[in-house]
């Protein structure tokens, strides 16, 4: 992302001009690059560099910030320095892997009995090479929220429902463009046992965080996976086929059971439907190529598991809840031909709910579904169980459909599960649209139960934290 | 303001824990103090220091940030270090002025012919000493948004409507707890001529920015003003009474004319009412001790002038629009016995409109009035006149009353000026309440006209910028 | 201190110009103020502000940094903005204390039985008011390295040699312009028992760090002390005169004994003299108004105690060893009529030894005495006792006199104590001069013994650390 | 470089502990990575990451800083987290170039008529592939201080003495691991005309600063050069052989003439020898594989040109003068079998002259030659010509040989050119050794003459600045 901004004219800087502050200092730690452009002759060059940084050319992609004092904005860029090179598109270069490292990785992988592949941000766009690699090696596969949809559920490597088991049993773990962060137990031997790691990434942050690879391939994931498949040639994989097939079988069973359970989860004692019923109803109607944006505290914990799709966005490892509505608007404008579904809790919805107005004005054809349980429920649960009282975290079951209609959006409130299919059909048909679905706050999510909300010291989840403590003590 | 926050447990820091980032680096430049408290034994001491900094004890007051890794939060503070001193209230100390400087100031001020007193943030709470000082000296007086209401409109020193004239004519200018920032032309001789300055402040930022005082009193404004009045004793002021009285007379006439004009400003060609009509109707109903929160881009430019009250808040010199709704909620909870009016444009309203839900849940008895002109009008004006086309800055005339009702708030839409008095009465009576008042986007505000929006190089307003250029060239 | 610097021209900034880096970011955390001045019209205003900050006007005094792109340096400052006010000297204002707080302090102090006064940086210049205050109250007194010489050794309040005892026994402790930092056990009750504190300072950092005062006087120390003496009037002090006199008596005995012991400390087994012999010989010749600059690791530990003088400088709480030579040069140029003695260890001497050349060229009449024990002895001691081997911390007994002579300075090497008096006389007579005095590395300093070098967790000294642990456990 | 440091124990942090400051904030902007390691369990992981960053694995190589609170230093690293992977050496991976980009580069290069290759930091270690590439393509070549010695003077591509001409005439410029910084006129068309660029680098800072490459190869220079040679195969180069040979011929003539001139440059009017005489005498004795460290202001300007060698270090683009002595010590300890010559001016020498003592103690077999002109001559020249007076920049012709002998080093003072050969032989034979060679301050260096010292606005040299202005105006 490239953010362009203005700043007080130089002659008023540090005098108390309107909005006189040093923007770049403020954003320094949350951007890849932040500069104030003071020299008109360098404007094009700075923009060029900013775009390169944002795209991660030679570094990590991410947000870039430039601001311009208004005197720079008013100045002329000398004609002669307006070089062609600044206007030329720069196709992203492929980083090719070192051949020796490729050979070492092949040796390790093709000797492995229980190889596991995990992908993340850096693997986006590498789907076909990834599937070819999985097929050749016969490894099992876990995706993460960052790279959902690269490998379809039908692929025999997918064992998502067996996540815990496979992390423990794998003997070689390949990370492709993925940090070994809290979502992967920091790659700790307490969870991954004696597994050896192969790290593949084009960004240092995804190459060696927490665990060093026995082999590390600093290369574009597409290029690295292609090189591995090619170097392996016809070499037969040593994978324990029985193990892999067994995992897949149990995954299929569990996933099926989960879908069935979700669709029939009973209402709460308050008569309100369980969030899983909503998710099941949505999943049933979701086109294969839908883009799902999940948002929320408690509700995200259900939606992360309950919705399957080929493109997926959520608040990510910084937990920036509230992104649902704006992400959904942007996605629906960028991909007007695909169905964009925003599935959000009511607490998170509030952050940017006003952007429904934006969606209407710009005719952004997204569908917004608010799972309205009248609470910051993950906090309610934590407060009640830790302190025995609840303060400031109960919301009203507000009329979000009424709000949406006030901005001119099609909107319905849904209070019973049997009304869902029809309401969903209508919403999908009349986009932008909003469904305000009342759900029970009694449903206790995995995150509320297992620790993410109460932050154990060594690992993010209670089970992993226990394992880590046990392991460290030998 | 004191912000307390949590941060990732120390053992997960820099490993990619959930929300693993250095908060203090992010807020460093916008806080007075920002610390991560890692040592349980120092928790009380850090809180003590944080509170002192926030109150500006020995520095400048402002926001303070502390965060605590969750392992610190879980730790015990040793009983012995829980000293009484940390729990004791610390009454703010008065900073007393240097007697020699006081004498020098009296000499300068009591010899002045056309003294002008201007107050700001630091003068809050010094109202009675300020009025006594004005009475003794016979100076004329200008307030600023930071210290609105210290001196009532009836006071003979008040010449607010003659701001431009008095800034040019004064021979001695006293700033009391006020920066000479863009709102005061940086104190430039181009605007203030040969006036000499007396600076009074308990914070360096309000003591010597842009212009050095011929006398500078680093002291609590209350104490400094009392010391000046006392040191002057019965010394007769040299003020040109005719000049002062003449300014006051013209001020009264202009202010009266303004009120009259506002109440009768004709509708736009689109048949929608002028924002001044709304302001006049509000002013007519406003109790003397009302708290007004003004917010907006264009609308703020009208409201700043059109509303008179004893307590006033607005987005301030950083132009942080969107503060209206939350400021109003907070003020109404802190002062439940006073009427709190939020007067906001529709663009700024959107930032935090969702907090209407908060107002309802917490029964915050504020009145929210949205001047709905369906636009970021100051931007529309700028785009149209500068570039000849308008992009992304036109809003819908959204149904904000409908939105408020969706959250359970009393709300009405008002489209005709003659409906205002009744609607205002009903809103004042059934708080929290919202009025969504449709106004014409054709009204051109002072800020849109005079330059604040297009940011001249040397001064924030076109007239001052012209004066500055002329003056610099000698 | 005000540092002015140049920086790359704006058009070459961020292009890789010569020395293209952001200086202000580098010095931000070690300066009070750091700015790049880009606007020629603001040059005088920035210099004015910089000087004010450096002098601590309205904040804490300290280093200030300004840099100027060379294009700013080449630009003209418009004549009209060269205002008189920027060239006018600004006499430092006195901060006067709050009368109520003064009364509260008098009540507490004049009721105290065993009051102790401790001074620091902020008390400089307040000597006569301090002595008057001590006389009136009858308190005992400890100085610190920051404010050495305010109260002469002969004054009956001085009990420096009883430091440990008096810190434990005092019932009220007054800090005057002094932080309660590691040198004062952080003011911990573990060391100061139940003593109540009165804090007097004109800088927040010396007002409330670590311990809150029962009374806190934010005021210029001179003004605060004067106000206390004046408010006390003829009120008789409640001081336990016997206690105070007893402490003084023991102080005088100990100090006498120390002087005697120092002068006769036997040589090491290596036949080299003990550093105390050197210090005793220097003290015997030192004029009353000498300025002493002490520097070193181990040697500082001896010199801090062994040299008494009216003005004293050392590396301070950041332990910036190496300051001896440059401080001495500066002091001797600033006070050419007073004897300036630099007493430094050979390790620290090396940092800036080359500046002897500067001393010669600028005829800076300082005397440099190097206590040459051929080692970073405090490190040698630590390495040997902790790890059993010594690496990289033994120096040669280099010929520093030879080095000084190479730069044209009078210099002698002294190897026997009985040569000292004559050598010192010659050095004092032919300044600048250097004495390279060989001393034994066998002398074990207090810092090497007691913990400063091995940094206990809770307190800087082993004894205090033990006390702190015992106290915290109740 | 990896810097490890200690910091105050956590319980004393922010309390005013000894040396209580945030080191990481201080070094942030001048390191690649700076962290405080608070968690004992992460010590090995942090060290691992620090080493990777210092070596530039996946980023830019450079200084890395870690500090450890003393409580971390005293803690145990749990045995189980002491993983093998942290102790394993990690061989640097090769970054391979994208094949498409290689083809594009070959097409451009093998069609070029007047290709120029320039190397820098990133090309170190790529000497043999570089020479193979130059031979195949027939390009001309310029080195820079960062990569001196990769291509021997005898190689037909070397045209160093024709630098100005070749920069103007080249039609394609290849940078290999080299920034287009001030030393290369920022790659401006004002100097390089219409040349097209090929950029080769494994660090973004050397890939696209100031000029975008028509082709950009983000790859290890060795790998990139090999790939280019290989892809070109037998394709005949289009180089204008006559042009290349002509340049080489003129280079050989000029270089020969320079050598001859240097050896016979007449003394100054003060009878002191010209620095070039010293350089000529040194060059005559220098072994082929000598390591030269040049340091100084004015003298560096002579030495940069006058000394030819296979390994070369100087203060670099930040102009960190004073590095000569320590760099020389380090180099001589790292390469005891090669002759290490430090050629430094007397001003720069002073910064770290005391480290001669270190050289003696550690028997670092370097030769230090001080060109002693008794001045910061580049400043003297600037002050005299700009302001007409000289302040503080004249030194004494100090007896640096005497100083060296005081530390036990072999040292001679040389005042006449005919004494040089013998003195140099003796110094080379009895290392460490120092020659203090008196030279005339009348010699005016290129930097003093041409602008580096007075910093023009657009380009670092007067001639380039003129060209840039002319070009920009079209």
From the alpha-carbon coordinates, what is the Rg of chain A to the nearest angstrom? Answer: 25 Å
Q: If strands are numbered along the chain, what order do they take across the biggest sheet of chain A?
A: 10-9-11-12-14-13
Oligomer description: homotetramer
Determine the number of helices of chain A (DSSP H or I, runs of at least 4 residues). Answer: 19
Give the low-confidence spans of chain A. Answer: none
Specify the structural class of chain A: alpha/beta
Mean pLDDT of chain A: 95
Can you tag this structure with a few keywords?
homotetramer, 474 residues, alpha/beta
Present the secondary structure layout.
The structure is a homotetramer of 474-residue chains.
Chain A: E1 2-7, H1 23-27, E2 33-36, H2 43-54, E3 64-69, H3 70-74, H4 99-110, E4 115-119, H5 127-137, E5 140-142, H6 163-169, E6 172-176, H7 189-192, E7 196-201, E8 215-218, H8 221-232, H9 241-264, H10 275-285, E9 291-295, H11 298-306, E10 311-313, H12 324-334, E11 340-345, H13 346-352, H14 356-361, E12 366-372, H15 377-387, H16 400-406, E13 410-414, H17 420-429, E14 433-438, H18 446-450, H19 462-472
Parallel strand pairs in A: 1-3, 2-3, 4-5, 4-6, 6-7, 7-8, 9-10, 9-11, 11-12, 12-14, 13-14
Helix pairs in contact in A: 4-8, 5-8, 9-10, 10-11, 10-17
Describe, in plain words, how this protein is organized in 3D:
The structure is a homotetramer of 474-residue chains. In chain A, the strands form 3 sheets. In chain A, strands 10-9-11-12-14-13 form a 6-stranded parallel β-sheet, with helices on both faces. In chain A, strands 5-4-6-7-8 form a 5-stranded parallel β-sheet, with helices on both faces. Chain A has helices at 23-27, 43-54, 70-74, 99-110, 127-137, 163-169, 189-192, 221-232, 241-264, 275-285, 298-306, 324-334, 346-352, 356-361, 377-387, 400-406, 420-429, 446-450, 462-472; strands at 2-7, 33-36, 64-69, 115-119, 140-142, 172-176, 196-201, 215-218, 291-295, 311-313, 340-345, 366-372, 410-414, 433-438. Helix content of chain A is 38%, strand content 15%. In chain A, helix 5 packs parallel to helix 8 and helix 10 (275-285) crosses helix 17 (420-429). The radius of gyration of chain A is 25 Å and the shape is globular. Chain A has 19 helices and 14 strands. In chain A, helix 17 (420-429) links the parallel strand 13 (410-414) and strand 14 (433-438). Chain A is an alpha/beta fold. Chains A and B meet through helix 3, helix 14 and helix 16 of A and helix 3, helix 14 and helix 16 of B.
């Amino acid at each position: 992302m490239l953010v362009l901004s203005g700043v007080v004219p130089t002659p008023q800087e540090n005098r108390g001009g309107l909005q006189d502050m040093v923007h770049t200092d403020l954003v320094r730690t949350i951007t890849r690059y932040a500069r104030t452009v003071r020299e008109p002759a360098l404007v094009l060059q700075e923009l060029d560099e900013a775009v390169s940084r944002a795209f991660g050319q030679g570094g990590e992609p991410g947000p870039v910030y430039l601001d311009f004092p208004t005197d720079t904005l008013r100045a002329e860029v000398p004609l002669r320095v307006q070089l062609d090179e600044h206007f030329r598109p720069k196709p992203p270069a492929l980083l090719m892997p070192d051949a020796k490292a490729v050979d070492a990785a092949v040796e390790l992988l093709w000797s492995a009995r229980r190889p596991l592949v995990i992908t993340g941000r850096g693997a986006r766009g590498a789907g076909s090479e990834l599937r070819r690699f999985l097929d050749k090696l016969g490894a099992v596969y876990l995706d993460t929220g960052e790279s959902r949809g690269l490998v379809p559920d039908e692929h025999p490597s997918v064992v998502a429902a067996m996540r815990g088991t496979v992390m423990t049993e794998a003997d070689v773990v390949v990370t492709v463009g993925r940090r070994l962060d809290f979502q992967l137990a920091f790659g700790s031997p307490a969870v991954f046992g004696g597994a050896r790691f192969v790290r593949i990434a084009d960004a240092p942050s995804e190459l060696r965080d927490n665990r060093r690879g026995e082999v590390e391939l600093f290369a574009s994931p597409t290029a690295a996976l292609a090189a591995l498949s090619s170097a392996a040639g016809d070499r037969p994989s040593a994978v324990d086929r029985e193990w892999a097939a067994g995992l897949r079988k149990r995954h299929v069973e569990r996933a099926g059971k989960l879908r069935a359970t979700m669709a029939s989860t009973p209402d709460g004692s308050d008569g309100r439907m369980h969030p899983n019923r909503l998710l099941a109803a949505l999943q049933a109607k979701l086109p294969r190529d839908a883009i799902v944006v999940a948002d929320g505290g408690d509700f995200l914990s259900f939606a992360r598991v309950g919705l399957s799709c080929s493109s997926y966005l959520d608040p990510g490892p910084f937990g920036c809840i509230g992104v649902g509505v704006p992400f959904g608007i942007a996605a629906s404008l960028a991909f007007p031909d695909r169905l964009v579904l925003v599935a959000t809790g009511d607490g998170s919805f509030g952050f940017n709910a006003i952007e429904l107005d934006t969606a209407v004005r710009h005719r952004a054809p997204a569908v917004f579904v608010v799972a309205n349980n009248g609470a910051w429920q993950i906090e309610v649960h934590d407060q009640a169980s830790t302190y025995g009282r609840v303060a400031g975290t109960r919301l009203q079951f507000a009329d979000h459909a009424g709000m949406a209609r006030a901005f001119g959006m099609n909107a319905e409130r849904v209070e019973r599960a049997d009304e869902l299919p029809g309401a969903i059909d209508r919403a999908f048909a009349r986009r932008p649209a909003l469904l305000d679905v009342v759900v029970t706050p009694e449903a206790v999510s995995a995150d509320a139960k297992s620790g993410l909300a109460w932050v154990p010291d060594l690992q993010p989840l209670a089970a992993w934290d226990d394992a880590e403590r046990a392991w460290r003590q030998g």
